[in-house]
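Schema walk-through. Below, the input block comes first and the output block second. Nothing else is stored per chain. Lengths vary across the set, and this one has 139 residues.
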Amino acid sequence: MDYLWLIPAVIIGGLLILSVLSQRGSPPGVQLGRLQAGSPKPNAVSSEPDTPEPQRVAPLTGSREDIRAAVSETGGKITSETDDYISATYSTALLRFVDDVEFRRDGQTWQVRSASRVGHSDMGANRKRVEKIRAALQQ
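--- output ---
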């Protein structure tokens, strides 16, 4: 009975370690002309054409400046950009877990990928984020 306090301590310690690990990562960037394929884990969404249906989202439309403004409006921080690529990070409020969002110009649209750096499931957070960005672009 005296060791029951260990359970929450281990859980909290594990979450803190994952938070630190997520802050040390970086977005994968464009590889072979496209954004990295989605993970088999349910913690990412992508609009790249070969993305499996459960993780698929539609591409975005707008100018590079529109994408930049939508990222800022939705709480993201742009970390790098070129004419055809933008990467941004978003952090959770409580433990500061970092997620990456990347955009790749594809003709008249932008392919998008939003993924958690750590963990298995994101409980739909990345899909919701992309839809918030889409809504900001339509304003």
